[in-house]
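Consider the tokenized backbone below.
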């Protein structure tokens, strides 16, 4: 549409032109800026991941072989996105930005193992064949665990499901494609790679190699200490888990983090019955304040209704008004939308005679609700309207005292002017006039009625008939209307009806066959989760029997979204276990591998807390991604230890040997993934409010999981194996060597 604006300008009448597009009410600007920033994070993250690989390998050819997995996997992922009917939106691009450090993991472990075989004296072709065959199972198991964690997203419904499906399919597709690349393209290129040239002693290559050897030697010492001091290692693991629980309880919760999209919205409400001219004066005062702010480039305002509906509907809301504003691009202004909204509330909220509520539209993304703010709750109960209004005002007062609630309002408006027409049914019946004729006459003359259509130049115009404005200003003039009886006589309405004036509610709403009133507010300095907890506690104190409270709007959407996300996490963990159990042909080893999950939560929750983020939809999606990633490191250790045990090593020696050998690929894959998400985690640029918590959760969780996996998983591998042996011996004692029990022993041992 933006591309066609130039064509539209050519056909505009003389004297009309389009001004600078910065002032347009353009909802696509935030999306375009966020997509561009995500693309930058994708490209820069790929460079950081490749640089990490080069630091470990210190050779250009192996680095290029691994780096080839990024474009090949991601370009093929575009095809999957197209086949699925998705678009290149924020979620699909963000999935690629976070996966950019993951798609090279399989290529890293395959090439590193090939290089290890070449170091043992094998030629390039043999090393590529044997190294790939040896590591293929571990790479396949690790990749399938990442893809499997996103299978439950197809069972998630609603708004959360739409986010998860785009993200999950993109990540799962990219890692499965990266596995194919790692098992085909990577060994083919490695088999044709010439042997490394001898480097001079004292060079950068040898200095880094000495550093890696130093790390490996000290890791062997640390590993030996952890295996010899099991109680202390278990204590470290328990402390990390308790720390995660403590940090998690201190994190705020919300549905969507507030975003700076450069737009804001304000609603103005004067006293009931305020004339349209008076409302317009309030709007002009507010407009003047906004236009004095250097960040503002465009305003749109309307007095009365939002501009739609018939004249009667607009007249009924002459005390209402709205302002919609756009701001300069983020790099050209000092204040964010949130800061401008806060300042506007402070300055304009002090103006007497009307109430103004100012919104950041990004905080109002919800399914349902009355759009009274980022926080909405309902009081329900079949009570008198006056009692419902009293409870609503008491709840508003208590919430104001708590602080953090601004723009508080109630949907129940009592005291609005009302005119009641009460017919004298007996007199009307005596004159042969029914109530329908009376109502139709008033509706036509006062409200107006479409009586025909006028056509001109291919256009249709409704013809609406009613009295002139001066004849319908005074309610008493209704008595001057005439209605025709069944006999054709004309009777003046003043002889048939009583005209009463009074006050009434603007609307009576019902939910689940109960009267309801919605309390809405915006939040300032507090999260949605804490607001819900405080509102429920206050409601429990003040609501009488027969009245209840229910979440609405974004609060309800967050509650439902949390249930959906927990379902996805639970099913994801179950599917990971099933996939690993099928691949390892064991019920015990998957438990060892999955120990990385709780250890990852220590870093994920700690990272969110340190960086000031909350538990929201995007951080939870990052944790879901993390659950699939962190098992990779454990799989590398456990699979190689099992290989060594099949070759004749005892389990302790096998783990003492496997862990140092797998140290470098574990460090390479984890650090490359962390550096790959670093641009997204930096929290800079448009759309960072959604990228940053997701990237921080996955990156910090991977860091803690990497450290604790290298220390704790080897010990628990031995502990679980000892437990399996103990159960096996128990079955042998119980079975007395009977053959039918032997199969049970084998199943339990596995």
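A designed sequence for it:
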């Amino acid at each position: 549409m933006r591309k066609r604006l130039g064509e539209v300008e050519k056909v505009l009448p003389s004297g009309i032109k389009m001004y600078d597009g910065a002032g347009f009410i353009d909802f696509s600007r935030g999306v375009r800026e966020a997509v561009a920033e995500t693309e930058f994070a994708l490209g820069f993250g790929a460079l950081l991941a490749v640089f990490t690989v080069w630091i470990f390998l210190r050779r250009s050819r192996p680095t290029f072989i691994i780096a080839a997995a990024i474009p090949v996997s991601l370009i093929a992922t575009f095809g999957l996105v197209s086949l699925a009917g998705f678009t290149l939106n924020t979620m699909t691009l963000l999935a690629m930005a976070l996966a950019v450090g993951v798609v090279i993991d399989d290529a890293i472990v395959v090439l590193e193992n090939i290089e290890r075989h070449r170091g043992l004296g094998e030629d390039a072709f043999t090393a590529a064949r044997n190294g790939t065959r040896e590591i293929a199972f571990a790479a396949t198991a690790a990749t399938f665990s990442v893809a499997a964690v996103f299978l439950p997203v197809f069972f998630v419904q609603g708004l959360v499901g739409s986010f998860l499906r785009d993200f999950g399919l993109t990540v799962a597709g990219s890692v499965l494609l990266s596995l194919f690349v790692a098992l085909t393209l990577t060994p083919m290129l490695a088999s044709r790679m010439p042997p490394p040239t001898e480097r001079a002693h004292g060079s950068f290559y040898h200095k880094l190699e000495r550093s890696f050897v130093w790390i490996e030697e000290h890791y062997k010492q640390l590993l030996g200490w952890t295996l010899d001091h099991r109680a202390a290692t278990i204590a470290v693991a328990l402390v990390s888990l308790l720390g995660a629980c403590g940090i998690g309880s201190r994190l705020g919760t919300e549905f969507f983090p507030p975003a700076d999209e450069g737009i804001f919205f304000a609603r103005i409400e004067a006293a009931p019955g305020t004339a349209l001219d008076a409302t317009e004066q309030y709007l002009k005062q507010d407009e003047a304040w906004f236009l004095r702010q250097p960040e503002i480039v465009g305003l749109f305002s309307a007095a009365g209704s939002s501009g739609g509906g018939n004249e009667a509907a607009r007249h009924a809301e002459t005390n209402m008004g709205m302002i919609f504003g756009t701001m300069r691009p983020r790099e050209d202004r000092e204040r964010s939308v949130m800061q401008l909204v806060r300042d506007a509330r402070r300055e304009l909220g002090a103006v007497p005679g009307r109430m103004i509520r100012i919104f950041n539209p990004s905080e109002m993304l919800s399914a349902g609700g009355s759009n009274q703010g980022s926080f909405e709750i309902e009081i329900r109960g079949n009570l008198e309207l006056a009692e419902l209004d009293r409870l609503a005002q008491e709840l508003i007062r208590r919430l104001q005292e708590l602080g953090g609630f601004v723009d508080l309002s109630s949907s129940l408006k009592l005291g609005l002017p009302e005119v009641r027409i009460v017919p004298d049914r007996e007199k009307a019946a005596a004159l042969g006039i029914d109530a329908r004729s009376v109502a139709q006459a008033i509706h036509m003359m006062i409200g107006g009625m479409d009586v025909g259509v006028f056509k001109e130049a291919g256009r249709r115009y409704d013809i609406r008939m009613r009295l002139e404005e001066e004849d319908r200003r005074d309610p008493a003039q209704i008595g001057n209307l005439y209605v025709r009886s069944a006999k054709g006589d004309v009777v003046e309405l003043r002889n048939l009806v009583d005209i009463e004036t009074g006050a009434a509610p603007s609307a009576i709403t019902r939910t689940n066959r109960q009267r309801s009133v919605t309390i809405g507010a915006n939040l300032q300095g507090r999260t949605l989760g804490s607001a819900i907890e405080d509102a429920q506690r206050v409601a429990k104190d003040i609501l009488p029997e027969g009245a209840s409270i229910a979440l609405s709007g974004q609060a309800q959407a967050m509650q439902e979204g949390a249930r959906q996300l927990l379902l996805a996490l639970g099913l994801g963990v179950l599917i990971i276990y099933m996939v690993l159990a099928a691949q390892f042909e064991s019920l015990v080893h998957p438990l060892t591998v999955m120990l990385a999950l709780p250890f990852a939560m220590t870093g994920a929750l700690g990272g969110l807390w340190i960086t000031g983020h909350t538990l929201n939809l995007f951080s939870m999606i990052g944790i879901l991604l993390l659950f699939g990633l962190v098992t990779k490191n454990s799989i590398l250790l456990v699979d190689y230890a099992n290989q060594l045990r099949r070759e004749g090593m005892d389990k302790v020696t096998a783990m003492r040997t496997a862990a140092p050998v797998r140290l470098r690929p574990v460090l390479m894959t984890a650090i490359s993934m962390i550096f790959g998400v670093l641009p997204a985690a930096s929290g800079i640029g448009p759309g960072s409010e959604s990228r940053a918590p997701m990237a921080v959760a996955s990156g910090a969780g991977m860091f803690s999981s990497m450290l604790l996996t290298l220390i704790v998983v080897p010990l628990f591998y031995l502990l679980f194996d000892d437990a399996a042996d103990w159960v096996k011996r128990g079955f042998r004692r119980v079975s007395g060597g009977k053959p039918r029990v032997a199969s049970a022993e084998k199943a339990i041992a596995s």
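The first strand starts at residue 263 and ends at 270.
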